[in-house]
Each structure stands twice: as C-alpha cells, then as structure tokens.
Amino acid sequence: MKFNRNFIINLLVIAINQLPNARGVKISESELNNFKYGAKEFTMAIIGDTGYTKEASQVMNLASFDALLHLGDYDYKCEPDSYFTKILGSNRKYKFFGILGNHEDAGECGESKYHRYVSNINYQMKKNTGTSCVFSKYKTMWSCVYNNVRIVGLSPSISKEESRSSQLAFLKKYLSESSEDWKICAWHYYDDYYHTGKYQKNKNYVSGDGENFYDYCKNQGAIIFSAHDHVYARTHVMSKFSKPVIDTYDYDSPSNIVQIRKGATLNILDAVGGWEVYDEAGKHKNFSHWIKKYARGSNGENAKKYGGLFCKFNVGGNNKKSYCEFKRINSSTSVFDSFTIYRNNDPKNIAYDKIDSRFLSEKIAAYQAKKSGSSSGSGSTTTTTNNNNPTIKTSTNDRCGSSYGKCPSGKCCSKYGWCSTSNDHCDVDKGCQTKYGILITTSIPYSSSNRCGSSYGKCRNNECCSRYGWCSNSSSHCGSGCQPLYGRCY
Ligand SMILES: *[C@@H]1O[C@H](CO)[C@@H](O)[C@H](O)[C@H]1NC(C)=O
Ligand SMILES: *[C@@H]1O[C@H](CO)[C@@H](O)[C@H](O)[C@H]1NC(C)=O
Ligand SMILES: *[C@@H]1O[C@H](CO)[C@@H](O)[C@H](O)[C@H]1NC(C)=O
C-alpha cells in the first residue's frame, strides 16, 4: 500500500507540531520517504483450500508477496506431490508455511499418502531461508519466527498422532514465549461459531469441549486464521470467542480498522483459494460477529471468483501497523475487503490514528538525529552508556537489537532498533530497549530530597527514580516505568 499524499502531509503537520524540538526544521516529504526507519515491511499471502488448479496459481498472481501461509487442502485427489511441484515450483522466491487440511488426512487418503503430505510440507518449510522454525515430533505442528512475526501452525482434529491436548500445549508453549510484535495462530478446521454453514454438524472441531484454542490466541493478541469452509469471512475484533463477545472498542472504530491487543483479536476464515466457493447456510451465516463475508450467491455469483488475503506487515516501518486486502480473480473489483490492523495496547487512551502520528514523530526525530550527527547538543554534558550485558556485541551501523547488538557508547536503542540520543530513543516509556543501549547523563544535578525527575534532579545513593518521581531501591521503583535519566534502572 502507498500512503495517500494528503494523509501523510496531514500527519506530518500534526507530528511536527507535536515535536518539542522540531521548530524551524524543514523536512520534505520525499526526504522522509527515502529515509528507511523502523521495522522491515513485508507481505504475507494467506490462502486456503486451493487444490492445484490453474485458478490457485492465478490467485497467487494477484499480488506480490514475501511469504505464503497455506491453510491446508493442497489437493482433493490424494496426489500428495501435485501442489508442491505444480504450484510451488522449485525456484520460489518466497517463504512457505503450510498446515495440514482434512484432505491430507490419513482418513481421506490413507496412511502413506498422509505421511507424504506431511513430509512435503516439512521439506518446503525447511527450504526457507531467514526463518526459524520448531517442529513437533510428528511434524503436524510448528512454530516459526519470520521477521517480527511468530506463526504457530496446528492440526487439531486432523493429526491422529498428536492429540488435541498436545496441540493446545504446543500452542501455549510457543505463543507464551513469543516476544515478536506480531503473532499468528493457524489451523484448518473451526469452532462452531466461526464458519458460515456448509457443514451444520461439524461442531467444535478445533477446541472440542476443552479449553478454547481461539481464546488462548486472543489472550496473547494473535491473529487467527482458519479454513475448511470455502468462504472468506472476517469477524469483528472479539474479546471472547468461546461464546462470541465483540470487543467494546470495535464498536467505536470503522469497519476497516482492526485494533488488536492481548485480550482482543479477530478470526479470518480464508478458504477460497482455487477449488470451490460454498454457499452460506443456516444460523451460522447470520451471526452478528461477522463483519465481512464472501460466499457463492444463490444464483451462483462468485462461484469462480477465487481469492486470497494479502497482508503487508509493519506498514511504513511501523511495527504496530499492518494492512490487508482480500483480492479475487475474475472480478472487475478485485479487492473485496481491505482493513488496517493496529496493535493498540491501550485503546481506551490512545486513538488508533495516534499510533500513526507517534510513529511519524519518532521517525522525524530519528531523521533529525541522523542529519545533525549524534551530538546531544550541550557540549558540557558527559554521557556514558549503561549496558548491563557486556557479552552483547556492539553494533557498527546504528541499528540495534537482538540481530545487531548494542549501540556504541553514548547512544540509546529505540523501540524500533535505531541508535540515537533523542528523547524518543532514550525514553523507556517510549520503548527504549535498555538492554541494547541507554543514556546516563551525568550533568543532571543530584536531587536534594527523595524526589527525582526534571524538576528535582537525579537520585542520590545510586537509587532508582520511579515513574512517579520517587527515589528508592525497591523493585517497583527500579523496574517498569523507572526513569533512567534520573537514577539507576534495571
Ligand atoms: C438469517 O437472516 C435472514 C435475514 O437477514 C433470514 O431471512 C433468515 O431466516 C435467517 N436464517 C436463519 C437460519 O436464522
Ligand atoms: C479468471 O481470471 C484469470 C486471470 O486472473 C484469467 O486468466 C481467466 O481467464 C479468468 N477466467 C474466467 C472464467 O473469467
Ligand atoms: C541501592 O542499590 C545500589 C546498587 O545495588 C547500591 O549501590 C546503593 O547503595 C543502594 N542504596 C541504598 C540507599 O540502599
């Protein structure tokens, strides 16, 4: 997606007005656009129930993408190699992630073909470069990290070797330890409320009567993809799935704005990749938690208009923003659905458009810092970098974080992994990554009391300065919200 010009200029005006130290600085739109900042952008295609038809290839040609997440059903004829040789081809440039559908199941095609499907998927995933995956013993579940996304792929009710409870345990293990910005849960089947009705009796396929898989993913803020029912359907942002509850903040935002966080997410049913499009049926199609649905019409409309979802992650470098389009073939209006996903941890206090303007001010600050060199202004200030981990290598290119290392002495590591000395990089509340570089300004005077902060000064006795400006060594003062400019933090 390209930003609309007026939109970005408006944002720029807002951001510049908000920046305390941006007075008099002129930055052109093109200068800023040429300055790459933040997390790497990439596009993921999410497509299900394709078979290996020519339409399946046409769907994949609807957009360019860096990674493909296939939601299962690679063919409907028990030919385990066909999709992988005819559709994926041998010299694909994109990453491939695939889960098992019911048409790969042993019940459908017999044991040996089932194993062949599993090993074909596994082989393709191991061919990826730049991804890091863990597979379960029988390879019917996996957890992969690709850029700043964690994807957990499961096969509840399909794998007989790995039970539903072991699938839930796998999900919990890999999702709870995920520190990636984006999280995705993917499985082929669905629970009762999350399909539009072709199979009226397929109840509770994913969660069974046990703990709800959807709600676990929601609690972690993961986006949920499922398939099997050959429709495309997107839910509202839900704060509960086991018995559907639409998130309060979803009512306040337009239908093309999706705000997710730990505790609220959406489910997308995405299974019209090239084989067949179903009608909707029964009570399921009427559920009010669907915000957008795509199916075959009663006169056969859409029957051949297959499609897939294309999501760009980290729009413009912003790791809190993604943009998705559901596109289809054989239609003059290719885009049927489009929406922006914001990771908004605090929708009560932060409007989603603030996420854009905050990111832009950070980008502008980083650009200014880069332009004016790394000096922090006042020549008399002595600075040191407080880095608690001497084993981390020092970055040489002004990037920082787990893959680059810590900033050189005197610079802070921003949330988005850039070394600089601006407040936006050094402020822990703005996500400064203290592990990879933080600034201690020694010219700040000591406080004469047990208060600290800009009007009091630094804590004495090597104590920590709390979020609210009190000195102490207690963990509540030294941890979250601790102000590194005014004392020790850990
Ligand atoms: C679904 O809603 C439509 C109208 O919105 C109604 O005609 C139909 O009877 C409903 N179907 C079910 C199964 O409730
Ligand atoms: C469907 O669209 C593809 C290209 O997207 C085209 O090659 C094909 O001929 C179309 N088929 C029909 C039936 O319109
Ligand atoms: C606070 O902790 C630091 C670091 O352990 C220590 O040097 C300092 O003496 C402590 N201050 C007080 C008042 O206990």
Could you explain how this protein is built, in words?
Residues 1-24 form the signal peptide. Keywords: Carbohydrate metabolism, Chitin-binding, Disulfide bond, Hydrolase, Metal-binding, Signal. Disulfide bonds join 407-419, 412-426, 459-471, 464-478. Residues 397-435, 449-490 form the Chitin-binding type-1 domain. With 490 residues, the protein is an alpha/beta fold. It has a domain at 40-354: 4-Layer Sandwich (Purple Acid Phosphatase, chain A, domain 2). It is 22% helix and 20% strand. It is built from twelve helices and 23 strands. The chain has helices spanning 5-18, 29-34, 54-60, 82-88, 106-109, 111-127, 164-176, 213-219, 248-252, 352-371, 423-426, 475-478; strands at residues 42-47, 67-70, 95-98, 131-135, 142-146, 149-153, 182-186, 223-226, 232-235, 238-240, 245-246, 257-260, 267-270, 290-294, 307-313, 321-328, 335-343, 383-385, 412-413, 419-420, 439-441, 464-465, 471-472. The strands form six sheets. Strands 4-5-6-7-8-13-9-14 form an eight-stranded mixed β-sheet, with helices on one face. The protein starts with a helix and ends in a 12-residue tail after the last helix. Residues 1-25 and 373-384 have low confidence and may be disordered. The site of one 2-acetamido-2-deoxy-beta-D-glucopyranose has 4 residues, from loops.
